[in-house]
Each structure stands twice: as C-alpha cells, then as structure tokens.
Write the structure tokens for this entry.
Amino acid sequence: MHQHDHDEHHHAHTPGSNRRRLSFVLALTLVYMLAEAIGGWLSNSLALLSDAGHMFTDVAALMLALFAMWFASRPVNVRKTYGYYRLEILAALANGVALVVISLLIFYEALQRIKHPESVAGFQAMLIAIGGLGVNAVSAWLLHSASSTNLNMHGAFLHVIGDALGSIGAIVAGVLIWLLDWKIADPIISVLMCLLIIFSAWQLIKESVNILLEGTPPHIDVRSVIDTLHEVQGVTDVHDLHIWTISSGKDALSAHVCIDASAQYKATLEALQNKLHSEFGITHATLQIELPDEEAVLKLYQIASRRTQGLQP
C-alpha cells in the first residue's frame, strides 16, 4: 500500500553548472591565496595572513565540495538506495568545522599580538587586500544564487564570504596602520572577523547535523502538514508521520493515513501527494493508506447491497 514518487527535483542550477562555478572559483581562490600568503609574510600583517589562511581552507573546502558533488551524481544501487546525496551534507559539515578551527587558531594568534603588537607594512597590506576583495566579490557572485538551494554550495559560499570579510578587515587594518600607525588595529580586526566567521560556520554546522540526524527541515511545520493532509476529502486521521531531508532540496515524508470507507483509494492518494508537492515542495512521499475496520466496511457493503436490491437500509 505504499506509493513512491521518484521524480527528480528541478533546480535553477544543475549539478554540471554548479561544478563549473565551483571549479572557476577554486582556480581564482588558489591563485590569490598564494598572493596573499606571500604578501602577508612580506608585510607581516596578521589580518592578511588570516585572510590567506581562510583562503587555504577555501581551497580545501572547494575541492571537497567538488568531490562530493561528483560522487553524489553516481547512480543508486542495491547497497545505496538513496545514492550518495548525503556526501554533500558531510562536505558541508566538514567545511563548517574547518572554518571554526582555522578561526580559533587565528583568534589565538591575534590575542598574542594584542599583548605584543608587531610592526606591519600597512600600505602594502592594504593594496593586496583590495585585490583579494575583488576576487572574493567575483567568487561570491558566482556562488550566491546556487547557495540558497544546495547546502554544499552554501558551505562554499560561506567560505568565500568569510574571505571577503577578512579582506575588508585587512583593508581597514592597513589604512589605520598606514595613516595612524595604529599597529594594534591588525589583531583587533582579525578577532572581529573570526567571530563573524565562527557565527556563520556554526549555522552551517547546525543545519548539516540536523539533516544527518534526520530532523524535520526548518522550513516545514509538522502541524501544518498534518492539517493540510486533513483537508483532503475522506481523510480521518494522520499518524506515524516523519519528515526529513535526504540532501539539499530533497525533502522526504512517510506517514500512515486513515480514510473512511466511502473514499476512493487512488483519488485520495493522488490528492494527498498533490497537496504535499504544492504546499511544501515534498515530492518523495511514502503514504500508507489505512482503511476502516472490517465491521464498518461490512456494514457499508450491506447498505449498498440493499439499495441495489431496492430495499431500505
């Protein structure tokens, strides 16, 4: 009595398009990461080195995202009936953890520099950071639209945004050091950037863990789903309801639905599936239809038989 709808979701961005975007962003990031690392070392700027550090995690994160996206496109088999979609979620989780770890390391180094400020070539750091911001802006523009529908792309997008914040911080620090000789600006701004990045990474980690624990998607209210299913004519009860996310944009549902004896099985099932798709975007639904008990069915059958024979019920 199970009905499955295995239609594929149609997203604004296909996996091939996302892979091309990620590949281009990876090339840009790799080139400018090397430039910032060298520039940060020559100018002794922690803000610039921290930005290069974030770019280094970006390179690893983007490579991981690309690998997960390629692997997730492999066909399903008898051992992986859902395919490899969850690899994208694991990659997003790894990216979030990497952001937190690198930010904590930079945070620690920044605290040491606040206690013992070091000389920084502010003007050179500022110029290099401006170039880095330009690269981050292009990368963010390429990833932004796809990040709203794919958690793996969202993780990569957050890495790029973290770099953009780091570049802005390095620019501000460079200006303050260059014009005001305020050496402490470099570590202070690094601390602020790290806090912002940790906050964003934590949201990514929470969302990834929720999917891995098969929690209810945050954009779906279970009570609303139950109420909507009850709107279908013939439905008397909904129980044993579960809603989870297979991968980004792939929500699934299973439930037991009781219908009265007069309801048409096929028409009711189709109406339930249409409701789930139109109201909540759920196209992978396993619905077990439960009929009334045998006594109720027998009574209705007897009434129908009497009417057919021209007798009163």
About this structure: The chain is about 65% helix and 10% strand.
